[in-house]
Amino acid sequence: MDFDLSEEQRIFQKAIRDFAEREIAPLVEKAEEEERLPLELFPRMGRLGYLGIRYPEAYGGSGADKISECIWAEELFRICRGIATSLFAHSHLGTFPLFAFGTEEQKARFLLPAIRGEKIAAFALTEPNAGSDVQAIESRARKEGDGYVLRGSKMFVTNGTLADFILAAAYTDRSRGFDGISLFIVERGTEGFRVSRKLRKEGSRSSETAELSFEDCPISAKNLVGEREGAFRDILKTLVEGRVVIAAGATGVARAAFEAALQYSKERVAFGRPIGQFQAIGFKLADMATWIEIARTMIYRVAWMVDQKKKCTAEASMAKLFATEMAEKVTNEAMQIFGGYSQMREFPVGRYWRDARQLKIGEGTSEIQRRIICHQLGLKTD
Ligand SMILES: Cc1cc2nc3c(=O)[nH]c(=O)nc-3n(C[C@H](O)[C@H](O)[C@H](O)COP(=O)(O)OP(=O)(O)OC[C@H]3O[C@@H](n4cnc5c(N)ncnc54)[C@H](O)[C@@H]3O)c2cc1C
Fold this sequence. Notes:
Elements: H1 7-34, H2 41-47, H3 66-79, H4 81-93, H5 96-101, H6 104-116, E1 121-124, E2 140-144, E3 147-158, E4 165-171, E5 181-187, E6 193-199, E7 209-219, H7 232-238, H8 240-267, E8 269-270, E9 273-274, H9 279-307, H10 313-337, H11 349-359, H12 366-376
The protein binds flavin-adenine dinucleotide.
């Protein structure tokens, strides 16, 4: 058993950390304040292969392993959860189904330009009346001529305001339940497609989130992902891996809060001593460091399982559950350590705390992760 990162992974870690600190950090304050995603990052990151860490180099990606993708997420989320969320929605949710199931034509038209940062991707599953309960989606795509006509609406779509294409889930056959859901590529400019509204959020403000509407959109059969109707269940299975990336991102947010709190505890003086010298504060920091360490160790192990092609449905949910709940605790403790200054917007701890809170909701809530773990343990929960 080897717990060390490989030479290649270490070099990558340094490169992506330097990139995030040099290229992303200076954009964060304005992006968060204006609630706008800095689009200039996309071509820059595309040129470096940073929009397709696990996609082959021949596609313009980095051709790296899952552990490297987790390193990518931790470093980016550490600098800005909002921007990193958009990058994740683009380079995983909105493109992985094309990589794993798309036709050569779909790859050439959508995946490759997305990896280069020339087109922006989004993934639209959630609806105003259906989030955790995927089977309750109301969007329909009815067959008409050679293609389909899509009708419905989608909620909370990351990159929805600016995506060039959106992978949207809709029923092609309601009577088949889950097996009747299909995934379509909807291109910006398609007749009947519109952004109903940009949503204003508590956390993750620099990622743009939208409600979308599809009013009888004509969709070519060539834009059906996976080439057959009802492939969504298989596609969704591959997205389990996304939970591991979000877990790594949560570790990044927690690390940002921990690093800030540690530094502050050495500088802030009360009762004649730096506050870090009070056991009550020192023990908090010791716990925070411990929780982060546990999460990262667990995440790397699940990432290793993905790389070894081992089944890891339960482990991916455990990592997502633990790391996101841990991030909430760590950011909360960091707020306490910063005292009154935690409430001042000139310090970023408030942002870390707001950003951590949503991690327990997106990509499957904590309750849904527990439900998945129960099923994997052979327990039938309601
Ligand atoms: C900032 C942000 C970005 C997002 N980006 C995207 C995106 O790009 N694409 C996309 O498709 N979606 C996206 N989402 C949606 C996200 O995945 C959903 O919010 C999430 O799946 C939960 O769905 P919901 O909000 O409808 O909550 P609900 O499903 O309505 O759940 C409400 C509460 O009930 C609980 N609950 C529901 N069912 C059960 C059950 N069976 N057992 C126990 N508890 C249960 C939930 O855990 C939760 O606490 C995003 C959300 C946010 C906030």
